[in-house]
Amino acid sequence: MLQVESKESTTRWQTVADIPRFPFEDYEQLKAAVAIRSFNIGVNSLAAAEWSEKSNSRFKRSIVTALSLLIMLAAIASVVAAFLTGEYWLLAAAPIQAVVFYLSHPASPIHKWVTIGGAISVAVFLDLLFNGFVIGAALVAYAGLTFAAVRAAGFITNSAYRKALLADETMFVNAYADGVCTLRNNRTKVVYSV
User: What is the rounded distance in angstroms from the CA atom of residue 146 to the CA atom of residue 135?
Assistant: First the structure.
């Protein structure tokens, strides 16, 4: 069962020590606990993406942009291929990608099931392909590609944002006060948030 520790007052704190009922006396203790994985920082994916767009390295932003373009180009390719080959089932690729894009987001309420589905899609793709259902295999491949691209982009932005929060106490305190990050005790499963 998930237990949440919530703070009533969200006044701006200066340091971790100022946060009421926070499990650490200072920022160095927090960083040490995260380093040994007894605590974990959770981040809001939208906040991480916004931070990444402004502050992440050019290389990581380029990877996220390339993954987004890959999804768009795949959708365009499916439409073009449908009309060139006369296989109009390929027109279903874009709506399939849209649904998978929405469900693959790490904050999705069914993200664990979608992860299982993403892993299973490889086996389904191979089964369809080897049994001669090329169009079905292609549609599953579009879903799998979209799932992988969304999860990879989310991982890049979320992990970079977590690292930034662990490198700057003021940034961590402000993000915590804004409710865009939480702290979870991995042993007791208690989540600390505003």
Answer: 17
Task: Write out the chain's pLDDT in tens, 194 residues.
Answer: 445 554 444 457 888 888 988 999 999 999 999 999 999 999 998 899 899 989 888 999 999 999 999 999 999 999 999 999 999 999 999 999 999 988 887 777 787 788 888 888 889 999 999 999 999 999 999 999 999 999 899 999 999 999 999 999 999 999 999 999 999 999 999 998 88
Paired with 5 in beta bridges are 192
Helices vs strands, H then E, count in the chain: 7, 4
Measured CA to CA, the distance from residue 21 to residue 74 in angstroms comes to 49
Encode 29-49: b = buried (16+ Cβ within 10 Å), e = exposed.
ebbebbeeeebebbbbbebbb
Which residue stretches of 86-168 are H helix?
93-104, 111-130, 134-165
What's the gap between Cα 45 and its chain centre? 6
